[in-house]
Specification:
- There is one protein chain.
- With about 325 residues, the chain is of the alpha/beta class.
- It is built from eleven helices and nine strands.
- The chain has helices spanning about 15-20, 25-45, 85-100, 120-130, 150-155, 175, 185-195, 210-225, 250-265, 275-280, 310-325, and strands spanning about 50-55, 105-110, 140, 160-165, 200, 205, 230-235, 270, 295.
- A nine-stranded parallel beta sheet has the order 5-4-3-2-1-9-8-7-6, covered by helices on one side.
- Helix 4 links the parallel strand 2 and strand 3.
- Helix 3 (about 85-100) packs across helix 4 and helix 8 (about 210-225) packs parallel to helix 9.
- The longest helix has 18 residues, at about 25-45.
Length: about 325
């Protein structure tokens, strides 16, 4: 190893320095993972944040996101249904809460919602009812590309965080993500949420064919946006989408990505989201010894996740390990 990775535990890393880390191999990777884990411990502590999402409205999306089973542009056989009613959402919320989730995310297909429409009002009423019952878990929303008026209504109702991924680098957004809306549309959505006082969860997807430069550029774009949560999704190629023939990334490449993101985004909640089961299998714990400190449980919209009981045992084991290292 030609340089000391541990210096980045306290030092801000430049884009050039981060890119140099992408070339690490062999034993040098172990030093990278250890440094990332130390950064996680120093800036975030030893608590693993658990989130659960519900696919509250599925399919028939007008956008052509190339990784997504719910786009009307692709024939994926995904089940389509309208917005779930409040009672169904409440049942799912309390099930997630019982299983230890501190955040419950309402995710809907489609480009956006407009203030005052029936579906938007259902979501607002659901949030108000849940928050009036004062649960310890919080509600997050992922409802597409919303404006300030809609964001303010969500905040006023009691939502705490808005989720909108930038997916990849700005240079490759139309190549790997979508062309029916722009990278700037997503940036503006994040800023609209922040203006309203909502926290933000914003990350992306790796494994779409992007380069290391794209990943580093995405990480620094996220650093500039300053979200509280950063989900790292690993592409799960879905038949019928333009990315159906992509191969899964190797565990080594995913771990390297997580570790470098941690060195760039020191105090953020970095969550391993979709794809973790397929890539890591029995070695999932390695992601949480390489910089990650959050995860999604209970599934990923159209893709089933791991058994919740197995996840809960896993989470307990990881936190015990963190606290005894």
């Amino acid at each position: 190893m030609n340089f000391d990775i541990r210096k980045y535990i306290d030092k801000e890393i430049t884009k050039k320095e981060a890119f140099n880390l992408c070339n690490l191999k062999g034993n040098d990777l172990l030093y990278l993972f250890a440094a990332a884990d130390e950064v996680r411990n120093k800036y975030c502590g030893n608590v693993l944040e658990i989130c659960t999402i519900t696919n509250a409205k599925s399919g028939k999306c007008s956008e052509n996101c190339k990784f997504c089973a719910q786009s009307v542009f692709y024939n994926t056989g995904v089940k389509s249904y309208p917005l779930k009613d409040k009672e169904t959402l409440k049942k799912e919320f309390y099930e997630a809460y019982k299983n230890g989730s501190t955040r419950f995310g309402i995710v809907t297909s489609g480009k956006s919602f407009e203030y005052g429409t029936y579906d938007f009002n259902v979501i607002i009423d659901f949030i108000k009812e849940i928050m009036s019952e004062k649960p310890e878990a919080e509600i997050c929303c992922s409802l597409g590309l919303l404006g300030e008026k809609e964001m303010s209504a969500l905040k006023k109702a009691g939502a705490s965080r808005y989720h909108c991924n930038i997916q990849t680098s700005s240079e490759k957004y139309s190549v790997f993500a979508a062309s029916t809306h722009s990278f700037e549309d997503r940036i503006n959505t994040v800023k609209n949420a922040q203006k309203s006082g909502l926290q933000v969860c914003c990350g992306g997807i790796i494994g779409m064919g992007e380069t290391w430069e794209d990943r580093i550029n995405m990480a620094f774009a996220l650093k500039e946006l300053n979200p509280q949560g950063i989900p790292i999704n690993i592409l799960n190629p879905i038949k019928g989408t333009p990315l159906e023939n992509r191969n899964f990334l190797s565990p080594e490449e995913v771990l390297k990505t997580i570790a470098i993101f941690r060195l760039i985004l020191k105090d953020k909640n970095i969550k391993i989201a979709a794809g973790r089961e397929s890539v890591f299998k029995d070695f999932m714990g390695s992601g949480f010894l390489s910089g990650a400190n959050g995860m999604l449980t209970g599934g990923y919209l159209t893709v089933k996740g791991r058994n919740i009981e197995d996840d809960l045992k896993f989470i307990k084991n990881i936190e015990n390990l963190w606290n005894n290292i």
